[in-house]
Amino acid sequence: MSSLAATDSSATQDRGKVIQPAWVRAMHWTNAFAMVLMIMSGWQIYNASPLFEDFRFSTSITLGGWLAGALLWHFAAMWLLMINGLIYLITGFATGRFRRKLLPISPRGLLSDLKAALTFKLAHDDLSTYNYVQRLLYVGIMAVGVLIVLSGLSIWKPVQLGWLVALFGGYDWARYVHFFCMAAIVLFLIVHVALAILVPKSLRAMIIGR
Amino acid sequence: MGRMRKLLIPGVDKRLLLRDAVKAMPDLTRRRFISGGASFGALTLLTGCNVLDGDSAEEMLKKVSKFNDAVQAWMFNPDALAPEFPESMITRPFPFNGYYDVDDAPDIDGKDWKLEVRGLVDNKKSWTLEELYRLPQVKQVTRHICVEGWSAIGSWTGTPLRDFLKLIGADTRAQYVWFQCADKDGYNSPLDMRSALHPQTQMSFKFADQILPRAYGYPMKIRVPTKLGFKNPKYVISMEITNDYKGGYWEDQGYNSFSGN
User: Has this prediction a pTM greater than 0.95?
Assistant: First the structure.
């Protein structure tokens, strides 16, 4: 705790501008916590009736112990995930942060940034501006986040939310969509965490704001 | 093995039952689970690493599950029908579901069987199968959804439960219809009254136009397409109209009690 406080005061001293405002940080970490609970309990639920015959998750990385426990976790953490996510989206649009930070996304910019990223030449001097690869990934993962919630609601309430299930092409398809959204989020997480470790000041900004 | 079977989850195929429901449970949990009593002990936490304090996490999860019961009751639209499918889409063979082998399923003699009626109801007479068969029947082809996630489309024929409740003068302001079954270890399950009165909730006597085979709950199953499979009891021997929450076989072990679709 003391070292964190020290960093905080030194950061205040250099009067750096706030990169991640408090609401973004609070919601980011709330989402991270809820998402981990959802994924780990979801893996346990998956194991009860695997979509892919020979593929199941090791119980050393699942949450809940068995199906009923996992379902209780999943249907508890979903509230945290959904409410936090909804407030995040509303705030992001209402404050104009999404428009400022995530737009525009041009194919040309994307190509050159992607090339730079893959050759490790992408600059991270200014954390307040997202490069085109980041913009696309953040917009993409938000879309996946919306999709995983909607497909999850479809599986949970296939009769009450029949119109939603129909959008996914039926109950069975909704299960596959839910699974592949999870896979996309896990892939994103791996890249996201790896990059946060490679560029530690971005992690610092998400913790103390600067 | 008798004890092991108690752990098994309805509707899984046998391999999964053993592999998941039993092996997946940490030893400590398994012991607590088997020791009976507070079956919520079965809800383990972060497997292998006890980050959260077990009991308080369980208490919290129980509370949220109760809250989810209320949310689902609020979401429940008594007029929303489960989708019906053409007969060509019926899953064949329709899976047998149980926490025991099909060979261990109740083997009921229809001539001796009677449906017992209890609780807040005018006419408590028991019903023979012959009497029940004389009531008007309807057919539905709907999707059975298991708590595990898999689903199968089946065809059930029988008497709408709400018609039967009316016939026997049940107090439909009561909270629950509680079913007891002939399964080993005494399967039972509560059904909230609004779901019991849903037009598609049915006392089923036939599957795919044939007298309900033993595997699917002979002589009577309660088909509730707005509920998960474990709330569709088979081998039913009694129903009780009651305001008391009497718990259920799987509900007591941690499955969400409302479990509505």
Answer: no
Report if residue B225 sits inside a domain.
yes
**Count of CB atoms situated within 10 Å of the CB of A202:** 17
Q: What is the CATH number of the domain that holds B213?
A: 3.90.420.10
CATH of the structural domain A2-208, one choice from 1.10.540.10, 2.170.270.10, 1.20.950.20, 1.10.10.10 = 1.20.950.20
Asked if residues A152 and A82 have their Cβ atoms less than 8 Å apart, the reply is: no
| pLDDT tens digits along A108-158 | 988 988 888 888 888 777 888 898 888 999 999 999 999 999 999 999 999
Interior CA angle at A90 toward A89 and A95, to 5°?
105
Pair B56, B121 in one domain: no
DSSP B94: P
Q: Are strands B151-160 and B202-207 parallel, antiparallel or unpaired?
A: antiparallel
Q: What is the value of ipTM here, to two decimals? A: 0.87
Number of separate domains in chain B: 2
Do B161 and B200 lie in one domain? The reply is yes
Q: Cα dist. A58→A15, A92, B12, B93, B153 in Å?
A: 47, 37, 19, 30, 30
**Residue in A45, A76, A171 nearest the CB of B145:** A171
Residue B4, C-beta contacts closer than 8 angstroms, at least 6 positions apart? B18, B22
A196 alpha carbon, distance to own chain's centre? 14
CA atoms of B141 and B119, how far apart (whole Å)? 31
Q: Best of A159, A167, A172, A173 to disrupt the B interface by mutation (most B CBs within 10 Å)?
A: A159
CB contact under 8 A, A72 and B46: no
Q: Are residues B105 and B233 in the same domain?
A: yes
Same domain membership, residue B144 and residue B112: yes
- Residues B42/A69, Cβ–Cβ less than 8 Å: yes
Q: Do A69 and B151 touch (CB under 8 A)?
A: no
B37-69 pLDDT tens trace: 333 334 444 444 444 557 888 899 999 999 999
Nearest CA in chain B to A158: B261
Please check whether residues B7 and B135 belong to one and the same domain. Answer: no
Together in a domain, B179 and B95: yes
Left, alpha or beta for A96 (phi > 0: left; psi -120 to 50: alpha)? left
Does pLDDT of B151 surpass 70?
yes
- Residue numbers in B near A66 (CB within 8 A): 9, 20-21, 24-25, 29, 42, 44
Alpha carbons B17 and B100: distance in angstroms, whole number: 10
Helices (H), B40-128: 54-75
Contact B259/B194 with Cβ under 8 angstroms? no
Same-domain pairing of B94 and B146: yes
Q: Which residues span the domain enclosing B227?
A: 87-253
